[in-house]
Amino acid sequence: MMNLTDILPEKLAKEIVGNGNQKVSALTFDSRNVNPNDCFFAIRGTQIDGHSYIEQAIEKGATTIVCEELPKGKPEGITFVLVESSSLALGLMASLFYGKPSEKLKLVGITGTNGKTTTVTLLYKLMLQFGYKVGLISTVANYVNDTKIDATHTTPDPITLNKLLKQMVDVGCEYCFMEVSSHAVVQNRIAGLKFAGGIFSNITHDHLDYHKTFAEYIKAKKRFFDELPSDAFALTNMDDRNGMVMVQNTRAKVYTYSLRSMADFRCKVVESHFDGMMLNVDGIEVWSRLIGRFNAYNLLAIYSTLTLLGFDKNDALTGISSVTPVSGRFEYVRSDNGVTAVVDYAHTPDALENVIKTINEIKTDNQRLITVVGAGGNRDKTKRPVMARVAAEQSDIVILTSDNPRFEDPEDILKDMKSGVDASLAKKVVTITDRREAIRTACMLALKGDIILVAGKGHETYQEIKGVKHHFDDKEVLAEIFKSMQA
């Protein structure tokens, strides 16, 4: 139980109606989870306005209400805190409620379209390997040192986030690596957090269903760097055309990394094979079990971050040579008859092109690439035809199939995808709505030495249809089909 005055930053409140010393037992923005003496935040979302639930929250026992608009009825014993932004207030107050946990460890965030999960997960694993206690906040899972906590969002809400960070501090974690999504920045989920560093990976076509324009998407990513403190580092990818845009207004110390030009940290891909690649990092050759130029960027970002955190360069290089692929990121399954199937989370045009390009650079002329790909429902529709076009232009055979249709008709999604395929390429593109059958067909079509790419879901172990998550694991399905074909 805390006093409201202890968790209310100075000048945040435009007006306080009621007892400013009200006791607060917990914070919540979901009226269904309210308990006696809780502080309820009325947040305006894209579909639901929390102000509509103030009365319900009070009925369930909330004694403090943070809102952007005061209700007409103000019951006795209830304190109302009027603010400009309830979501901003939630972030700032959650940090104070949990004792400013982000200030008690070195918190490093990464933002960008692709590479976030791989980069933070491998940084987390390397820190464990180096003997440190460390936390991870990612799309795949959250970890408080070695304790796994399932993830529901790329970046959790401010209450969950600060609670996680406090748990990390309580067990002695010195570092935390987290993905920072564009949604999280815009929705103030990271408000009140102190970052020791920020990393920019790249920015390509994604989430335009939410941000509406690419300019707004860039602006959301850039805001993360705009708000970094002066004692933090801002590490940016110089090879992305928006890399320097991201850091042009930051107060943090700027560092750059690149595979193509002069930068603070440099890398070159010397050799590339299906079982790994040889890199030259800052003049030293190192072998990695990860594959592809996109992973060379991820590994260079990891090396740069470790160096900026004060680690010896040789230790950082030794570390990146030991890491293995992150779940669902260019993982492969091989059949007994010599077919290689690659499973990757690529669900944007750029990510898909990167994976296909990597495979085409490694495979020989007599090997074919069969790509199985879909697009998620109730998400950015504009990328659907682009993804289909990318697959058709750079694969030998393409099977368009269902991803996570959610509440959309899979056939409508596939129709959107097919609209991007040029008539000259239509002969090598087939549509099979059932994902399992699509993967099975790819396996049946594959000859010895061929490569199958199953893209879009990666680490996911479910397929979401009409609000229900059905068990579905691309790697598992591939292994089953390969096994049945050997019988």
TrEMBL record:
Motif (Meso-diaminopimelate recognition motif): 403-406
Molecular function terms, GO-annotated: ATP binding; magnesium ion binding; tetrahydrofolylpolyglutamate synthase activity; UDP-N-acetylmuramoylalanyl-D-glutamate-2,6-diaminopimelate ligase activity
Top-level taxon in the UniProt lineage: Bacteria
Catalytic activity field: UDP-N-acetyl-alpha-D-muramoyl-L-alanyl-D-glutamate + meso-2,6-diaminopimelate + ATP = UDP-N-acetyl-alpha-D-muramoyl-L-alanyl-gamma-D-glutamyl-meso-2,6-diaminopimelate + ADP + phosphate + H(+)
Stretches assigned to the Mur ligase central domain: 110-301
Keyword hit for Ligase: yes
Alphabetical list of NCBIfam families matching this protein: murE, PRK00139.1-4
Protein name (Swiss-Prot/TrEMBL): UDP-N-acetylmuramoyl-L-alanyl-D-glutamate--2,6-diaminopimelate ligase
